[in-house]
Design brief:
two-stranded antiparallel sheet, 7 helices, 42% helix
């Protein structure tokens, strides 16, 4: 080990990792005409870590390892199947040249497009109904403003609509109008 790569670690700076590796298994079968390699990695959230709400992120090196894992399983029956689910950042990462081999091995691509204004309004209504609330709590103009603010991305719609509902409860009002939305969206941008 090169002395210049050593770093002092202090106990006061320690933070438990968000995820723990629970199991690592590698099964190698060798035969005269073929080799079989099966690897398994089981990861779980660390109960000792502060609840960060952050997803497990595979960095560039982990994506390279994933490509190698897929390549090693090409001749195995049944072939290895992996489902990659992520936000726009994953799509951008996979488009980088160093991940071209992995991108070429992805057989099916699907991108959930943002909702239209009409779909956003219906989405809010359905979410309210499923939660046991009235569909008419949000003014129609507010549903359109929520769409404009969030770009129709469902997770952002959920977050902003929830913030509006919390603001309505705090103010003791039963309808979410444009004034309440403006107050909420201003605070939402600051947070």
């Amino acid at each position: 080990m090169n002395d210049s790569s050593r770093q002092t670690k202090f106990l006061k700076d320690y933070a438990p990792p968000d995820y723990l590796i629970e199991e690592v298994a590698l099964d190698v079968g060798l035969a005269p005409k073929a080799a079989r390699v099966v690897s398994k990695l089981k990861i779980r959230p660390n109960p000792e870590a502060p609840a960060s709400g952050q997803p497990l992120v595979l960095d560039g090196e982990a994506l390279t390892d994933l490509r190698l894992l897929i390549s090693s399983a090409m001749d195995v029956a049944p072939p290895l199947k992996i489902l990659l689910v992520g936000q726009e950042a994953l799509r951008s990462t996979l488009k980088r040249s160093q991940h071209g081999d992995l991108l070429n091995r992805i057989g099916v691509h699907y991108r959930l497009k943002p909702l239209t204004k009409e779909q956003t309004g219906r989405y809010i209504d359905v979410q309210m109904k499923q939660a046991g609330g009235a569909e008419d709590i949000f003014d129609q103009s507010v549903k359109e403003l929520i769409h404009d603010f969030t770009g129709g991305v469902p997770r952002a719609i959920n977050n902003l609509a929830t913030a509006c509902l919390l603001q309505a409860v705090a103010q003791g009002v039963l309808r979410i109008d444009e004034a309440l939305f403006q107050k909420t969206s201003t605070e939402f941008q600051l947070g």
